[in-house]
Every structure is written in C-alpha cells, then in structure tokens.
Amino acid sequence: MDRNRKWVPGFGAVLLIFLSHTTSALEVPLDRKYLPQPPTITLQSPKDYIFDPRENIVIHCEAKGKPHPSFSWTRNGTHFDVEKDSKVLMKPGSGTLVIDISGEKAEAYEGTYQCTAHNEHGTAVSNSIFIRQSRSPLWSKERNEAIVVQMGVSLVLQCRPPAGLPPPVIFWMDNSESFRLPLDKRVSQALNGDLYFSNVLPEDTRNDYICYARFPHTQTIQQKQPISVTVLDNSPDGERRPGFMTPLGITSTKMVLRGETLELECIADGLPTPEISWQKDGGELPSSRMSFYNFKKTLKVSDVNEADAGDYRCTATNKLGTAQHIIKVSVKAAPFWVSAPRNLILAPNETGILTCRVNGEPKPKISWFVNGVPIENAPEDHSRKVDGDTVILSYVQTGSSAVYQCNASNEFGYLLANAFVNVLAEAPRVLTPPNRVYQVIANNPALLHCASFGSPIPTITWFKDSQTSVKNGDPYVIHENGTLEIHVAQPLHSGKYTCIASNNLGIKENHVYLEVKEPTRILKQPEYKDVHRGMSAVFECKVKHDPSLIPTVIWLKDNGELPDDERFDVDVDSLTIRDVTDEDEGTYTCIQNTTLDQDSASAMLTVVGMFPVHSRDMRWSPRNPDPPTDLELTDQTERSVQLTWTPGDEHNSPTQKFLIQYEDLLHQPGVWVNLTDAPGTSTTVQLKLSPYVYYSFRVLALNGVGYSQPSQPSSQYRTNPSAPDENPSDVQGVGTKPGNLVISWTPLTGFLANGPGLEYKVQWRQKDVDEDWSSETVANVSQFVVSGTPTYVPYEIKVQALNDYGSGPEPEVVIGYSGEDLPLSAPDSVQVMVHNSTLAEVHWEPVSFQSVRGKLQGYKVYFRRIRGLHETEDTEQQEQVLTFSGNRSEGRLPGLQPYSLYNLTIRVLNIKGEGPPSPSKTFETPEGVPGPPSFLNVVNPGLDSLTLEWGPPMNNNGRLTGYTLKYQPGRLTSFNNTNELGPVKVINFLANETTITLGNLNSSMLYKFYMSAKTIKGSGPIITEEAFTAMDTSELFYPLTQPPPSLSLRTPRFTRVQALPVSPSTSPNIFTYYLPCKTNGPSQSIVLLFSFFLCLQCLNNHCILIHLKFSFLCLQPILFSVLHSMTKINSIILTAWIEIWTDSHGNCLSPSFPSPFCACVCLAVPSRQVDIATQGWFIGLMCAIALLILVLLIVCFIKRNKGGKYPGNKEDAHQDPEIQPMKEDDGTFGEYRSMESDTEDHKPLKGSRTPSNGTVRRDESDDSLVDYGEGGDGQFNEDGSFIGQYSGKKEKDTHEGNESSEAPSPVNAMNSFV
C-alpha cells in the first residue's frame, strides 16, 4: 500500500476524530429518534482491499443519521455514476457497492474509491479504499546450473519468487517428499525465502531442491525449477570460525514503524555449526513482546514502540571463535491518535471545541474540512476559528450543524476522522424513572440519580420532602451528572427527594424516595466449644435487624458448606450438632443475610475424648485449662502495648500456647478477632496496634485437651487516628460498555482506615498520551465510572486512600482498558480450499485493529450443509460453529460430508461479542467413497445356489457407480469350529442392480460374502454375510481328518481300521462309525468319540454340534463332554460315530481330542408344513436314542475286547495316563489341525471360537482331555457352550478351576443338553 498518499476530498479514509466540549458531553437519549442528526459512518471497508477476480467486489459503506442519509461515490477522485454501470449495484438503504466482475476484466475496476453520506445537516466521508486485484504471477523461466561443492563449505540456494499481491508464502520441498524440507541449526530458510546451509554434508546431495510460492488469495502454488546440489567429500573443508552469510558486513540498518513487528535476522556459516545469541546494546530485550524463530536466527519484537530503537547485536559462536553483527534499528511512526474525539451537541449560543490531537514520526500535518470541503474553501462562518489541531465554535446558531473532518498525514500514512456538530434547542427531560425507591443501610453512602437531557444542558437542583433545598456541602454532594450523594446516610435522611432539571426552554421535575435501614447485627455470637465425642454442641447466633428486612441464616464449616448429615440441625438462631465426632472439629461461621447487608461471627469447636466418670479417676485425668486472669496493659505507645496475664490451672496437661484476641469497640463491637499467639511458658506479649481503634483484649490457654474459656476482657485502650498506612487493593480498570471505564478496588475495612473521613482519590489518564492526570475524590465506595472514553484504549489508573488526617502512600499504577464495543468490520477475502471430501481449509483477511474495538478473541466460522449435490431440494442441517482463537487468518473445517454444497460466514470476536458476518461463501466438497450397503440378505438356499439381496448405502457420498461382491467357500475343520476358506471370486454390478442368484455352488457348503458400493472415488466399507447351501442327503458318511504330514517322527501314525454303520431301520436318522483297535498289555485305555449334529434354522445357517467322548480303563468311564450352541430348530439330522486311534502296532492311544470333519446337515422342510423336527418331544426322543446307541456300543466294545480285566490298583485307576495333559516333548499328539488352516489368508468363519486373548498355546490345546473332562466347575465357553465336569479327581493348576469328585453319568450330560 502507498503510505505517502494524503487524504483530500473525494480521496480519503475515515478515522476517529477527537472532539471535546468545554463542559461534559451531551448524550442523546436513545428514544429521541425524532431529533435531527448529521450523518455518521458506521461501517466501511478497509483502506487496502485486495479482491479475488473469481468473486464479486463488495465495498462496504453504511451510515446513520436523521433523516437517513443518501450515498454517492468517487473513483480515482472523480464522480462515479453507479447507475450508468450495469455491473455495479448499490444496496438499497446503504452505500455498499456490489460489482459483478464475471465476464469482465477485473483490472477495469481497480482504483481508489470513496463513499459520501449526506443529509440536510451535513456530509460524512469514508476511507479512501484502494481496490486491487490479487495476483499470482508465474515464475520467470530460468535454467539452474547444477551446483557441486565440497563437504563443509557454506551454500545459499536462491529462491527469488515472483512478486505477487499479496506477497506469497515461501517453502522448500523436493519431488519425493510430501512435507517441507526439514530445517535445523545448520539449514535455514531466510525471511526472503533463500535456503542457507551453514556447512554442507554428503546427505545434502539431491537433484530436486524446489522452492514453492503459495499465494494466499488465489490459493495457487507456483514452483521454481529444481536445483541440483552435489556434495563431494574427496577434499572436505576443515573447521572454521563463524562468519555471517546474511546480513553482510559489520553493521546494517533497519527501519520499522510503530505498532508493527520488528524482524531481525542473522544467519552464520562455520564448522561446527555456530550458535546464535542476541542482545540490545544499552538496554534489555523486551521479553514480553519478544520471540525467537528459526533456531534463534530470527528475532521478532511485536507492537514496536519508540523505546525499541537502538543497536541490536547478534553473536555467532562455535568452538573456534565468535563473530558479531550490529543492526541499527530506527522506529518511525505513521500518525496515531493522542486523544479520542466525540460528536458534539450544542445549544444555540453555546461554545464548543473540536480537537484533533495526533502524534507520529515525523510530526504529522493536520488539515480540516467541513462536509468534505477544505475548511478554507468552505462558506465563511464567523463563529468558527481554526487553531492548528483545534476548531473553536463560538455562539453557534440553529442551522449551523455540520460534519467536520480532520486529516493528519506524514510520509508513512494518514488518519482521517469525521465528527458532527449538532446544534439543538431542546427543553429538559429527566431520564431517571419516576418514583424510584433507593434503599441503603445506615452509615453507608446513598446515591440518588437524576439523569437528564436537554439543550442547553439542564441545571439540576434537589429538594427534600418538596420543601427543603439541598445544597452542596456535608452531608450532601451534587455531581455534574445530577446525581445526589449522601456520604453517610442516617435514618433522618429518609424521605422524598425531588430533582428539577431546567434550562431556558423549560423545567422538568422527578421524584425519588430514600429509605435508610438499620444495619443487621449479631447480638449473641457463637462461642468457642470443646465437646466430648458423642455429646452435643450448640452454637447460638441471635441477630438484630431492620423490621422491614427479613434475614436468612447460613452456617459454614471451615468456610465451606455444612456436611450433609442429619446430625446437624439449623434453627433460626442456633446450630446444634448431635453425637459429635472427630470430623466435626473446626471453625463454624454464622452469616445473617438481608437484601442490603450481612453480618457474620465465628467460633471454634474442639472435640476431646471420653473420660472415666469415677471420682477417684477424675482428679488425675487431664482436662481443659482454666482461663487466664489479671490482664494488665503496660508500656503503652501509639502503635504498641504490652499485655500481661496470670495463667490458670493446667489440669494435668501442660499449656502449649496462649491465644490473644481483640475486640474493636468502635468499628466492630462484639466481634473478637485473633491477634497473635504466645508460647505456653510466657505470661507477657508485646502487641502491635493500628491507629483509630478502641481495643479490648482477652486471652485463651491451650493444652492437650483443648482451649480454655476466654479470660475476662482487659481495660480499653484507644489509639489515636493517623493517615492511612496502605491503599485499597485489587485496583482494576474495565470498561462495561462503550465510552466508559469502571475503576474498581477493594475498600479498606475496619481499622485499616486509621481515622475518620475515609475517602479515595481516583486518578486516571490515557496511556502513552502526553496529558495530565484526571482525578476525582469519592467517598468510601468501591468503584468510580469514567465516562466519555474512546473505545478500548489503555488507561493508567491510581487509587489512593485519604482520611481527615492525611493521605496514604503513593499508589502503584495499574493498566486498565476502556469499554469494548462490537466489532465494526467483517473479515474480507474469504477463500475456501477444499483438501478432500471431508476436509476444507478457509482463509480470510483479518480485520484491522481499529475495527475490532476491543480485545481480539478470535474468529468464528459458521458453516452449514445446504444439500447433497445429487439432491434437488435443499435439506439444510444445523449450523456448525468453529472458533479459532487469536489473530488467525485461516482454519480447517473437518468432518464435512462428501459431495455436498456448503455455505459459510466468518465473524470477528471480541469480549463484547461478535461483529457482522462476512459475505456468505459457498463451496462444494468432492465425491468420496460411499457408505456400506444398507443390508445384505441371503434367501432361498438351494443345493447348488444362493440368492443375495442388498440395499443402496444410506450415504452415497457421490454418484453411485455400482457394487462389488466377493465370496468364497469355507468348511469346518475341527471340533472347536475353526475353518478354512477357499479362493475368492469377484462379481461387479451396476448401480441399479440389487439382487443376484449364484449358481454352480457346492451343496452342504458354507459361503462367506463381502459386498461394497462404489463411486468414482473407489469402494466403500464392506458388509458381510454367511450362508450354507442345502445338504445333499445322500452324503451321510464323513471322512475323518487325517493328521498333518508335518508331525515329528515321534508322533505315532494313525490308522483307521473299520467303520460299521448302525442299521437305519433302528434309527433312520442316526449313523454310527465304529473303529476298533487292538489292546496289548495292561492298563490300556480306549477312547470313544461321539459327534452329534443338529441343524438349526437352516436359512440362517445355524447348527448344533455335540461331541461325546469316552476314555475307558477296564469298564470305568472317565470323560464325558458336551458343547452346544442353540437357537430355534427348524430341522434335525443326528449323526454319531466312534473314533479310535492306534499307532502303527495297533496299540490304543489317547490323542488330544482328534478333529473329525464336521458339517451341518439340513433337511428340506416345506415352509407351510410344521416340521416334526422342530418339536421339543422329538428332540428329546433323538437324544434318548443317541444315549441308547451309546450304551449298546459300550457293550459291543467290551465283548469285542473279550471283557478282560487289566491288572492295576485303584491308585493307578485314578492316575490313568490317558487323562493326563499331553505335551509335545512327550511324543504324544498335541494340537492337531489341518495344514491349510495354518495359512494367514484363512480366517475363522462366524461362529468359530478362539480364546479370549486371541492365542492358542500348543501345550494347552482346546481339544485336550484335561480341558474338557477334568477339574473345574461346569462353565460356559465364550460362545455359550457348556462344559460340564464328569469323572474322578485330578490335580490341576489353580487356573483350571476348582476340583470336583463328582462323576456325572451320560444321562446327566444329555439332560444338560436337552
């Protein structure tokens, strides 16, 4: 921006003008809307406006006035006829221009614009608004020579980006990385974008150093041609002292403007890499405004002022030496305001003054204008006199209202302000509501208000009871704003007060009422208590109060709420604690509240232990000490006195200390306050005293049991008054509304006043402004309001205590801020950069500091989804808000919905609230991957086919292009339902297809399906389903799983000897496989395994699998186990077999539960016919038949093995090795599963069971006899399967469960299933 431009009529910028009045300013009541008023600019665009050529240009200009002003514009100093340009629209009722540059050359509308607001009472002008188009020029074509350097030397890679508007953001990357090049103490990016290497290393070799320039307005990125760097290490450069690469030479200069940020940079070379440090010659660095960047190579000082000028020294250090460079910094200043202006309302024949006080370096030149015309060219007005920065208006007349402009400029910029002078003749009017009642407590100040309006300013007079005239003087004070103050209100001051506002145009009166109430005082205070455990404690708190005020009592324990315990009973004037415990010990405070005041008193409760009641024990038991006696005051001075006493009886417990308390009979009669402690061996203490206190002292003794009763009070000792020793604390200055500054403090309490007539001297002045302190002396209150302040400027504040005997010490200066107002401007140049389908980044031009009109809290981004791009009607969702704290210019919007239309606005935020919204910005999110299909169902299963139906996704997130179906067959491979999965087949469908029938499938086979939807962005999440094809009932024999060939040589080879099916005529749905084996030698065990399959709800592919396993030694059953997972049964087929494993010699073995092939068999059942297999009696019958078959098989087995007994004793029977846990190193069969199931590609199907921790240990197989048969109470597995306990005792690890000696029968086991 050109800082040298000066404002002239038709070529200027609005700023605040400083106006003052010879008396106080006259405020216009808000409801007097009929009063004439010259125009006032309320909203305008910033001085420098850079627009995006892809969007309309919006130049703001809003104003108010009576009548409402009309608007006109100039462009480049000449009249701009808005109506003749079809591309330009002026908003109705305002001066805001909207320029449609679509299809036009944006450059045609560049230039300087100024708005004029005019009505019959004057003309106000806006800023000169410099409109420029944002630009992101291409990099000039150049060929970069390859750079070859030796290791250790320094290197600079120049960027030299194209000059954009605004300037671009520079960063370095390479072609292989998605992030910026890492910077460190050795490698730096300078402020101008060049890349500096203090010393190069071999790893710096690369052929694609690329400098990028990002232009923030257009959101475009340009890149420089890659630079190739090769670092050789055949002749490396040795270690060397530091030297500066930038800036060059011993000294350099830097100029910075006041209020801006000073950026100083020092980059050094050297080996080893130097460290950088900074200092300011002859002064300290401003730590509160200073920060280091780029590994301390860059020093930034924010909010620069004149004190920041000077010599800044940067030092580069390594082990070989140091180098220094001095940067001489000078601070200049564009014009800035010294005092704030105000609009001026004058009555005819009054005199007023307009002041325009500014400062700057060099000193600004001040020019005056009237209604936009230079004051020397304006019509002559003899009542007006110009004197430099002041315009004096004498004896103004009706009709001389106007708007004055002040322009202050120097070579670095300018300021402009509008301020109107409104000449009115208005009769008085009292703004305070009539018949208002003011209530105060006696001995406190009372304020009776009489706010008024009139022109000339009305004179205020007061009367009491409509007769007695109230004059300034004790006890009354009449303030400039008409408020009547009574310093110390007494009951005799109660009554009716009348204020009369008068000027030469009329008189107006108003009545208010004052009621002075009696103070609330606690007459009977709670007293110290020491109570034995289990007894009751009663604290009294009786109060005296004004009859018209109803007090409420609050009790506190240790300054907190009372415990929520029914033992605490709060009455009107007492607190009772029943059944006292040690936890009840503490300080109890009684607070008596009314609507106007309160009083409080405290007492301590000490809990002591219970003592024997026998008289012979009482004489030796310790008790509370007796109170001290004979209190005497000696060595009396103004600020000290010596107190002496005689201790009482200690009662078998030595005195630990004495507590001295005092009562102030002047300020707080009846309230005893702790003053100090004295050792238990002392009888004298020197007491420090305060002035103007009527002291009375008492002493309490403390031993191991508790405190004594207080002593009798001492004689009264009065100290003389003096000036205050201290000032009020917690002084603050905070504006509560625009145009005011509320100065508050914590008043001095009690004897801290040091004397009568306590007052406060309040002083204030605007910070960094060369002006005298303003002051006001107020009564003993806690705040003072300064009105007519500019909006949100810093003030220096002091509050000093005074009394009739002098002033307190010099107070400290506190910084406060005047009131904030809502921000004036909205962020400009809002741009949205969409990163992906769910994330966007919004950029904006921050508002100017002046338009914030308060402490900047941040920016709020409001955004709302209007509709999906595939929808025809708007379906707006709830508006979302993101707040970005601080002076931000960008932010990210996460969680967006893909393929949607959004709009957003941005508001600036200060403590007062939010400013106006920025122009609405719409943007679109690109397509994303869709959500999963809404459902996937398998219907109509056949022997070799399955039909699938699915629904479209709930969220398409784009244009749906189709669906992808993947499926693969699977089969159960083991007793615990692990599975194998076959190859995957893929089918693609169009977007309008939602069903498919798959043929050529295997019968009795489990299939797993994976369905996903697609857009052009890819496939979305999958939805899965599993289903069985129907069973071919001709396949009723199932092969056993063979052991994997990978077993070690010690693992026996298993042989299948014979299979004998049970006759179908006996049980048409039961088939049995009987595998006999030879048994050679004593103590041989025989293992029988029965597997039963129940198919449940065939359409949903649920089945039930029962394994019955028996291990025999002689004739005793050892193990029995049942697993089941049950749902509604639609059909049933029951299959059973016995399986016996032998080694190569035919000897019986006890494998860890071998894994037969298992499958679910479903019979076809007509849908309209009741299937007998779904009936409970049929299920029970099938189970009974299975049990009978089991008994027959046992008998058959015994006959086949000749029924011989094996030698052995009972102990051997219970220690049968057949039921011991099997380990791999024993040479026995451990975990047995198919090799195919070990591959990573095969995952368990739905319904398979795995341990809860997801692992399987080889020495604790799921199929082991130990896990299923012995030890532990019956329990359910993760899938609901029941594992009972069956046969004899067996020692197990503690984690296997409790032992049990019960051996349930097979009948019990089957009953548990049914």
Give the tags:
signal, 5-stranded mixed beta sheet, 1314 residues, glycoprotein, cell membrane, Ig_sub, transmembrane, single chain, disordered C terminus, 6 helices
Strand content: 35-45%
Please describe the biggest sheet, giving its number of strands, its sense, and whether it closes into a barrel.
6 strands, antiparallel
Uncertain regions: pLDDT < 50 for 5+ in a row? 1-25, 611-619, 973-978, 1033-1171, 1203-1314
Overall geometric form = extended
Report Rg: 48 Å
Total beta strands = 93
Based on secondary structure, the structural category is mainly beta
Summarize this structure briefly.
This protein is mostly beta strands and 1314 residues long.
Describe this entry's structure for a reader.
- The protein is mainly beta.
- It is 4% helix and 41% strand.
- Strands 82, 83, 84, 86, 87 and 88 form a six-stranded antiparallel β-sheet that branches. Strands 3-11-10-6-7 form a five-stranded mixed β-sheet, with no helix packed on it. Strands 12, 14, 17, 18 and 19 form a five-stranded mixed β-sheet that branches.
- A hairpin with a 2-residue loop joins β70 and β71 (806-807).
- The longest helix is centred in the C-terminal third of the chain and has 25 residues, at 1176-1200.
- The chain is extended, with a radius of gyration of 48 Å.
- The two termini are 91 Å apart.
- Mean pLDDT is 77; it is low at 1-25, 611-619, 973-978, 1033-1171 and 1203-1314.
